Predict the structure.
Amino acid sequence: MMTNIDFAPALLLSISNKYCNFHEIRNTLSMIISASRRTDIPAFYSSWINNRLHAGYCDVPNPFNIKVVSRVSLTPTDVDAIVFWTRYPAPIIPYLPAFLQMGHNIIFLITVTGYPRFLEPCRPSVQKSLDSIARLAEIIGPGRIVWRYDPIIVTERFTWENHRSHFRRLAKALSGCTQHVTVSFFQDYTKNRARMEQARRYGFGPLPLSFTEENTLLAELASISQTCNMTMSMCASGDRLLPDGVQPGACIDGGLIEQEFGVKLPKVKDPGQRKSCGCAPSRDIGMYDSCTFGCTYCYAVKNFDLAAANRRRHKATGTSLLPLPARQVNSGQLPLPLAQPCTRKS
């Protein structure tokens, strides 16, 4: 039978055992932990991730079927790298020395756009974000921090010229704190569609840009990046022709992880992401509808009231980010807890 573990389809293994053999799966695949595309763990759930890393595992429900739960090892011997996605890393910074002492390899993807409050009503101030990134760079180094100026949204009230001047100020402030900036243009998703239509009524809806217009703006931002000693990449660029100074990129960048930590990763893309995405395969340990920054364009939150309610339900001592019915975790479909640490083949 097919086990009920939620690996992406291309990585799913068919095992006839009653229980899923995590050891076999880990021995055949590298593992990057994504924490998380689905929510902001460093900003809102830093105590939880601290507890889970010390415990060495967490439980993750399939986002499309909450009855399907996977136990994911978080031990340094099983994990090649942890990639933290956040707008505000300050709450997790006190825990980082312990994470590093455990032997974890850590990359941070930090979104700083500083859009008007209509688009980002609950984000931290730009200055607070910049200050926290400077503190983070002192701990893990600028090479392991990626600034995400993402998504780029050109609107009637935040124009092309606004992007140029705003990006220049941010890049100057972040110079020396990061060597990498990644960008992409706004994407329409089911979860953000109604909110962005409402934003259009107030002059904040995305304006259509031609391919030439996009590349012209990218070239100008890349030129600014270079003056601030940063390389620029575009995520999910697919096969499009990019201007000079902009490289095809990925948020979960296997090349960067190999370069920084000396690990060897398979040269494959994550089959669970959109076709144009160049990200390396990873296991996401977050849950949707749990970030409360309230960004209008967010693809990970459908209902902000639900996200706030879910955050209230969160327990830092739980094995999963949000509570699960007890029977789901111990349903006999998963070997919980793991019987023994697994070892990776060289």
About this structure: The first strand starts at residue 32 and ends at 35. The chain has eleven helices and ten strands.
